[in-house]
């Protein structure tokens, strides 16, 4: 029996979330430090996007002022990825995945200021709700992972800021072109930042064969491929279904970290209880605030590890197609 278009789209978005869940795992397996890892990832994705003629057309049509705005967001993207992978290097993939889950909490507070919409006091419940979870997480990880957790929380803050900015600038340009500008600007920013950061050996080392293969999987298989598939799937799914599905990203990542990396041996049961509370709060958020969130900007799908940044302020025309 052939799948209905809706069922096919649902399978597609779950496939994307599974691929996104691998980003934390690959970040742990790649031996490069966080900065060269992110630099190579951004460079590979940006170079691959230049193969699309629509990107060139979009660049020619984009005003310089708008391009500068997206380039500024690209700097935040680079800082988000840099701190995300630094958190994984300093702690582990499970801690990095937890920080993905925290990003919507920051967005609920930051977005009203940036998008100039009225603050909904009910969104404050989301921030309060994760506090016990984070407290349990602190009690469930070794002390030498605290710095990694702190850096990961900073990564969640960065993704919330640029996610809100992308929402404010959404629909001003083609998503592929915007993603190229943001990642291209991020690559340039990290090139300039590299000499200022502590390092051993070359600033931006050339990866060996092992890291090259994993970087290509990360850049093409876990970034560009799900970006393209998700853009197709979003045409058939409601915003609510998309948000609930993408909320599963840290769940997939933590399960993969247990299966592939055995990270449950490094973490106490309190960590997983804390993660459950954080995820429960994130899943409950759309029910507490609005019935119908809007779809996240397409750029989030290509530039953020936290894809579950749907706006709860209103509805989206696509939401009616469920």
What would your notes on this structure say?
The chain has helices spanning 5-29, 34-49, 53-61, 64-90, 93-115, 122-140, 146-168, 175-193, 209-233, 239-246, 249-261, 269-289, 298-303. It is an all-alpha fold. It has one domain (5-197, 204-303). Helix 3 (53-61) packs across helix 8, helix 4 (64-90) runs antiparallel to helix 7 (146-168) and helix 5 (93-115) runs antiparallel to helix 6. The longest helix has 27 residues, at 64-90. It is globular, with a radius of gyration of 19 Å. The two termini are 21 Å apart.
List the helices and strands and how they pair.
Blueprint: H1 5-29, H2 34-49, H3 53-61, H4 64-90, H5 93-115, H6 122-140, H7 146-168, H8 175-193, H9 209-233, H10 239-246, H11 249-261, H12 269-289, H13 298-303
Task: Provide a short characterization of the protein structure.
The protein is mainly alpha-helical and 322 residues long. It has helices at 5-29, 34-49, 53-61, 64-90, 93-115, 122-140, 146-168, 175-193, 209-233, 239-246, 249-261, 269-289, 298-303.
Keyword list:
322 residues; disordered C terminus; 0% strand; single chain; globular; mainly alpha
User: How many structurally independent domains?
Assistant: 1
Question: What share of residues are in beta strands?
Answer: under 5%
Task: Describe the global form.
Answer: globular
Q: Could you report the average pLDDT, rounded to the nearest whole number? A: 87
Number of β-strand runs: 0
The helix-strand sequence is HHHHHHHHHHHHH
Helix and strand content put the structural class at: mainly alpha
Low-confidence region ranges: 312-322
- The helicity comes to over 70%
Distance N terminus to C terminus?
A: 21 Å
Radius of gyration from CA coordinates: 19 Å
**Count of individual helical segments:** 13
């Amino acid at each position: 029996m052939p799948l209905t278009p809706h069922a096919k789209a649902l399978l597609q978005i779950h496939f994307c979330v599974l691929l996104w869940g691998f980003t934390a795992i690959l970040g742990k397996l790649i031996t490069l430090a966080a900065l060269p890892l992110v630099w190579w990832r951004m460079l590979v994705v940006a170079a691959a996007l230049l193969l699309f003629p629509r990107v060139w057309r979009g660049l020619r049509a984009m005003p310089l002022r708008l391009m500068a705005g997206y380039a500024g967001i690209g700097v935040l993207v680079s800082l988000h990825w840099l701190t995300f992978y630094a958190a994984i290097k300093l702690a582990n993939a499970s801690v990095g995945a937890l920080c993905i889950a925290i990003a919507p909490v920051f967005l609920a507070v930051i977005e009203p200021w940036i998008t100039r919409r009225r603050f909904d006091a009910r969104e404050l419940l989301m921030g309060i709700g994760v506090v016990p979870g984070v407290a349990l997480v602190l009690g469930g990880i070794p002390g030498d992972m605290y710095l990694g957790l702190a850096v990961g929380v900073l990564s969640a803050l960065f993704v919330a800021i640029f996610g809100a900015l992308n929402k404010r600038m959404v629909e001003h340009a083609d998503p592929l072109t915007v993603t190229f500008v943001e990642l291209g600007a991020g690559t340039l920013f990290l090139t300039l930042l590299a000499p200022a950061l502590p390092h051993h050996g070359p600033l931006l080392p050339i990866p060996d064969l092992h890291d090259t293969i994993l970087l290509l999987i990360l850049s093409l298989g876990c970034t560009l491929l799900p970006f393209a598939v998700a853009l197709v799937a979003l045409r058939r799914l409601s915003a609510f279904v998309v948000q609930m599905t993408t909320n599963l990203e840290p769940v997939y990542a933590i399960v993969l970290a247990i299966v592939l990396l055995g990270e449950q041996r490094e973490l106490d049961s309190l960590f997983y209880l804390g993660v459950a509370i954080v995820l429960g709060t994130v899943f409950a958020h759309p029910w507490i605030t609005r019935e119908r969130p809007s779809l996240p900007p397409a750029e989030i799908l290509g530039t953020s590890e936290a894809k579950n940044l749907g706006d709860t302020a209103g509805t989206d025309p696509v939401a009616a197609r469920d």
